[in-house]
Design brief:
Helices cover 67% and strands 0% of the residues. It is built from 23 helices and no strands. Helix 3 runs antiparallel to helix 11, helix 5 packs across helix 6 and helix 18 packs antiparallel against helix 19.
Amino acid sequence: MSTYSSSLASPASESTPNTRSSSGEFEHQRIPVSHQLSGKYFLGTYAGEHVAGTEFVIGASLVALGVSTSDLLWGLLIGNLLAVLSWAWVCSPVSVRSRMTIYWYLERLAGKHFSLVYNLLNGLIFAVISGAMITVSASAFRAVTSIAPQTAWYPQSVSFVALVLFVGAITVFMTLKGFKLIANFSTVCSPWMATMFLASGVVTVPILLNMGELDGITTLSGVVDTFVWTGATPDGAPGISVWIIAAWAWGANLPQHLGMSDMSILRFARKSSYGYFSAAGMYIGHYMAWVCAGLMGATAALLVGSQLTAMDPGGVAFRVLGAMGLIAVVIAGWTTSIPCLYRAGLAFQSVFPSQSRVKVTAIAGVATTAIACFPFVFTQWLNVLSYFIMLMAPVGAIIAAEHFLLPRMGIRPFWREQKNLATNWAAFAAWGLGVLVGVLFLLEGSLHLFALFIPVWFSSLLIYPLLCRLFGAEREEGDLYEKAYGAPNPVEPAGTAVAPQNPVRRRDPWYFAALACLVLILGMASWSWRAGLDATAQLDTFQLFIIVPTVGYFIAATLWMKKRRRPQRGA
């Protein structure tokens, strides 16, 4: 879930209305036809952005929560489908018709005060996520030291704190280098990360089968039911149900789809149907990565004779993938922590516009690193993220109501502007009442924490239009969408250069070299499936052999990226 990582667009980078910023992102201008993108761009974006450090934590956490195998597989299938439909049916249509960032949309919908509160909370959430992933990266370095795994809510070792400060300093430094470094780093790392997750699943299955034979279990389904997704927690309590898993899979990326933050990238889409391409991220990044992370976690715990809850991501990855597993954890943590810290800095800068992005990001980085010293952030990650989702869900519901429901009531979107109101208090009230609904369900205890976003989102969706009438929104005639947004496809403003068309290029040899290295890693992982081999004994050989194709991949991918970027620098 490269959670919250779909777009680096932020209010801090916005230009003045009706002008295009120097970054070319049209933050306060609707996307003209000449700058709209084909589906290939969005397919690649979604396929690459949902394999990150959070997957290590979530996959292992689902094992510890005691879900059964069938409930996990069906729950992830249903929940990820609901997430894809949320992108395709809710977020994408709003994005393509309005062609605005969420920040500009909220400013027009509710006023600057609403946007200020939203950005402040957004920055806080991004900072906490970044801190959790710094802890994940630090766990990889910890695995090669004598420092014990940090599984309490507080740091249990001064050495671990020093390690976190070291990792945090690198994270802040890379973040301060800016957007281009972050984007290139993620582009190179994402395919390898997805391959390593898949390889971990492939290499652990024969190990589990070997262990099952010792207990008289000969089928794959019997092995995973016994050793991985057992249907009970480590202390013997019943596990969570298929519907709770489905709710979690649906809500894990709610800030992007029903929360509408992906408006910032989907506004570039030529068609709203491109929202369906999010399936690439949900079923590669979430379904595959969470399942493989669960297999890896359970196998590592069995091999070291420990409870999975007593291990951290670094310890798990090191036992199964060796040194390359540690690199995978470090990179997975950084591909989430660095973009999230970047967004936190931009969000906080919008609250303190007189300060530079570098200064605000550096201060946020110091605070984020301090948070990372307390491992509770990632040991309780699913719960922490669920609270954040509940807090932010009403904002997306308000946008959805503004776009889908108000016109059906004869009220134009952005009615606040028409009435010259400084603040849309109906939006503030709907946000607060939505969160209150979640708190009441939480206190009452009838709904699992992972599912709280559902009544929160839908209550805000229904409450907001009623409050709009109460606060003076009036009915109008005509095409209300055109009155609010303008024509469906904006023309290129005078004086704005048309986006250059990239020439059709043959695939570079380095591209095929990088792809061959990834295939080789998967081939090595599948070697232990050969009959007669002791999969556990072969694990050390696999860990050693994948070093060469990993090094080869990063060399080839970096050279391919440099050649691919070269024409843009000369443009």
